[in-house]
Amino acid sequence: METIPTKEAVAGARAALPLVAIVGRPNVGKSTIFNRLTGKRKAIVGDEPGITRDRIYGEVDWAGQSFSIVDTGGIVPDDDAVIPANILKQAGLAIEESRALIWVVDSRSGITRSDEELAVLLRQTGKPVLVVANKVDASKLQTEAMEFYRFGFEEVFPVSAEQGIGIGELLDAVVQHLHLGENRAEANAVILVDRPGGAAADESISPVSEPEHRELRLAIVGRPNVGKSSLLNGFLGKERVIVSPLAGTTRDAIDTVLQTPGQVFRIIDTAGIRRKGKTAQMAEKLSVVMARKSLERADVAVVLIDAEEGPTALDANIAGYAHDAGCSIIIAVNKWDAIMAKETNTALGFERNLRDKMKFLDWAPVVTISALTGQRVDKILSLAIRANQARNRRVSTSQLNAFFERAIAQPRGGATPAPVRGGVSRLHVQYITQIAVRPPTFVVFTAGGKAGLHFSYERHLQNRLREEFDFFATPLRIIERHKKRAKR
């Protein structure tokens, strides 16, 4: 019997590494330090202030010890604007979970009023604070970095995150403060543990015993402001990422690990993908690139569509990105609760319009949800589990050829279209075999005539394979291998 994960299932806590938070005002180099410490370019960096907005987690190994690290958005203590206020809230959550804090300041600009206000807030936490004077590229600046001792914290580390200067000394101090060797058993227990993304690390980083299945990487993609971050928070049952009515709030691809009784999910919340002509800022362009790269490491993509606006050409393009990346796809129509005067056939009519705009995804399931109220949000996770099982399904060659003889290799005049256009070629389909999973990939062996299966034949073959072997919500790849007749 299939287990349907619920929000309550999140309460099964995973063992966590000690957590260190990187904090500071905007544009001091927090994300550059995060990337330097984790050894991955996971956080977007640039000259524009305020690029990082949500919490981004990673893992650091140093001197035989490991700890988790979280990058936070730039803190502006006295700013009441929507996004800065939410950034402060997100940073506060990270500080509360952490055992030590890395406070990044800018040695070039010196002490600012924001630094002074932030120093007061950090002192009130009662946690160890390591002051990192970043952008130290010369001996003169190393001397100027000493002015940050006036805040009263014990340690100030002159570093250059860009060049790697002083990073080793900083890591030595972090490990010393955490007392990892003595206090590993007392490390903070949290419900959600985030780890650096990347396909190469996925099978090895989870402390949870997963003898039978790997993590399911679930990417949430869509246009700006369709509710991607709200859906992530709905999965988790808590506010994990910033949600605001302003489009483009999320800029980084954020990984969050969610454990349920039936499956461990790595949920990837991506930035909203705009049309190329609408991405003016450098950070937004990078966000779109990273969102598309996130699809390349995802197993299942939830393509989110706004119910009020209906399916658009851009929605179809985004779904196309997921299809090209080989993801299994679930189409989620969000804000369904906002549709007034719904009738019996409202959902059916909406789906018919959607299918018309996305004919290439006639196999993808459609579910109407409300991320705000939680309506049918849990259903997405159960559908994702089923889709992931299908994309990992391998069919033996004997089963495939029995199916082929019974359902495909029939005389002309049957339901199967001709392998080539017009049916005048001598091209003959011999047999079929599966060579890969994730997504399922099949090789069709042909002989005689000229190589080149007609698209209608490939589509028919894909549809019959889905029906026969339940390749639910999953794209299928067909490769033709043609055997030329030997010359005499």
Notable features of this structure?
disordered N terminus; GMP Synthetase, Chain A, domain 3; 31% helix; Rossmann fold; alpha/beta; 488 residues
Verbal overview:
By secondary structure, the chain is an alpha/beta fold. It has 3 domains: 17-186, P-loop containing nucleotide triphosphate hydrolases (Rossmann fold); 199-390, P-loop containing nucleotide triphosphate hydrolases (Rossmann fold, 3-Layer(aba) Sandwich), CATH 3.40.50; 397-483, K homology (KH) domain (GMP Synthetase, Chain A, domain 3, 2-Layer Sandwich), CATH 3.30.300.20. It is 31% helix and 19% strand. The protein has 13 helices and 15 strands. It has helices spanning 30-38, 82-97, 113-125, 139-144, 167-178, 180-183, 228-236, 282-296, 313-324, 346-357, 377-391, 397-408, 455-469; strands at 19-23, 56-62, 65-71, 100-106, 129-134, 155-158, 216-222, 254-259, 264-269, 300-306, 328-334, 366-368, 428-436, 441-447, 477-483. The protein has a 6-stranded mixed β-sheet with strand order 2-3-1-4-5-6, with helices on both faces. It is elongated and about 85 Å long. 41% of the residues are buried. Mean pLDDT is 76; it is low at 1-15, 42-53, 79-87, 180-212 and 240-252.
